[in-house]
Design a protein that fits this description.
The chain is built from 15 helices and eight strands. The chain is of the alpha/beta class. It folds into two domains: 280 residues, Alpha-Beta Barrel (TIM Barrel), CATH 3.20.20; 68 residues, no CATH class. It has an eight-stranded parallel β-barrel. Helix 13 runs antiparallel to helix 14. The longest helix has 16 residues.
């Protein structure tokens, strides 16, 4: 059994180009990726500047991408993060939100994400405030599937350190108050979970009174630390046995759009093969599908440097050899590796605070 699979472009830093998004949709749709949630942290019109309407040119580009998704048989959606709306859901805020929803509705949304992540959340009535907002939005977007991301989307205590102590019974109260038709996202036991187990997911489903909609933070590599590494290996720790326990499985990809297809293909294979899945063989098949044979071999041979050692763990000589190796290929994935080696994908702490 394979659950509904999709991509959520939800990372910090430089977002994809429209061509990169379109190519990803067309490449992964045949493997079973049936939805794409557009939610890059760099799109301020969905986040800190959500009250402002999209400029005409950007809205046109977004509409064109929505059509690409539909042409590929992929559900198109956006993730709206109305920054700190729950601190003042008054008349002016509702007017601005209604206007933004009207703009987005013109895109023909199949899915609408309402995301409360990356905001201060230490309010005793946080769940009640967010329930009111989500239901208000759902009434004005009746044809879209609503997918909410809680402020505390994992039990990982790092969220409490960064965004304030979560209210007692927050997830339970949110699940009890939300319409059962509304999906709730979950990243697992950690922000970037090493594995998902049926036992953990069953407990979470009981707490939120619905199966979790997985936001999987692999192979994402944003942030000051992770941007120094390429996440290329096949998925592990996502056994096919979790499928009955989840509503859907969304992959947050890496900053490198083409290279991200390699692990994405292995997740589909993991669900398809079940107990017969072998992660190394899956990586090799996916790399061959995304790259040409010689480039796939070169990536496999240098995984220890690209993924494990990273930019801070390789010597100047190793970096020079990697540059020479991948400069020999005229392929977008090779160009992504070269750009990464040159620091083009580096993300600083300031971007995490301002996007």
């Amino acid at each position: 059994m394979t659950p509904e699979l999709g991509i959520i472009e939800g990372f910090f830093g430089r977002p994809y180009s429209w061509d990169e998004r379109a190519d990803m949709v067309r490449a992964l749709a045949p493997a079973g990726y049936g939805f794409y949630l557009y939610a890059p942290k760099a799109d301020a019109y969905l986040r800190r500047r959500w009250r402002e309407p999209y400029p005409a040119a950007e809205l046109k580009a977004l509409a064109a991408f929505a059509q690409v998704c539909r042409d590929a048989g992929v559900r198109f959606g956006v993730g709206l993060s109305p920054y700190e709306l729950f601190l003042g859901f008054d008349g002016s805020a509702k007017d601005a939100l209604a206007a933004k929803l009207d703009q987005l509705a013109g895109l023909g949304l199949a899915d609408l994400g309402v995301f409360f992540d990356d905001m201060k959340g230490d309010l005793p009535d946080l769940a009640a405030r967010q329930i009111e907002i989500v239901h208000w939005i759902a009434e004005r977007a009746p044809t879209a599937r609503i997918i909410a991301c809680p402020s505390y989307y994992t039990d990982d205590p790092v969220l409490d350190r960064v965004f304030g102590q979560r209210p007692a019974n927050y997830l339970e109260d949110l699940g009890a108050g939300l319409d059962p038709a509304i999906q709730l996202m979950w990243t697992g036991e950690e922000v970037c979970s090493r594995e998902f187990s049926p036992g953990h997911l069953a407990k979470v489903a009981a707490r939120m009174r619905r199966k979790p909609f997985i936001w999987d933070n692999y192979p994402v590599n944003d942030g000051p630390r992770m941007s120094r590494h390429l996440h290329l290996r096949a998925f592990t720790g996502r056994p096919a046995s979790i499928a009955p326990h989840i509503a859907a499985h969304a992959v947050n990809p890496a900053s490198q759009a083409v290279l991200s297809r390699i692990p994405a293909l292995t997740l589909a294979e993991s669900y398809s093969l079940g107990d017969h899945y072998q992660y190394l063989a899956a990586f090799q098949r996916a790399a061959q599908a995304v790259l040409d044979p010689d480039l796939a071999d070169g990536v496999e041979r240098t995984l220890l440097l690209l993924e494990d050692a990273g930019l801070d763990g390789i010597t100047a000589e190793q970096k020079s050899r990697l540059h020479a190796r991948f400069s020999a290929f005229d392929h977008p994935a090779a160009r992504e590796i070269l750009a990464w080696l040159d620091g083009a994908f580096a993300i600083g702490a300031d971007e995490l605070q301002t996007q």
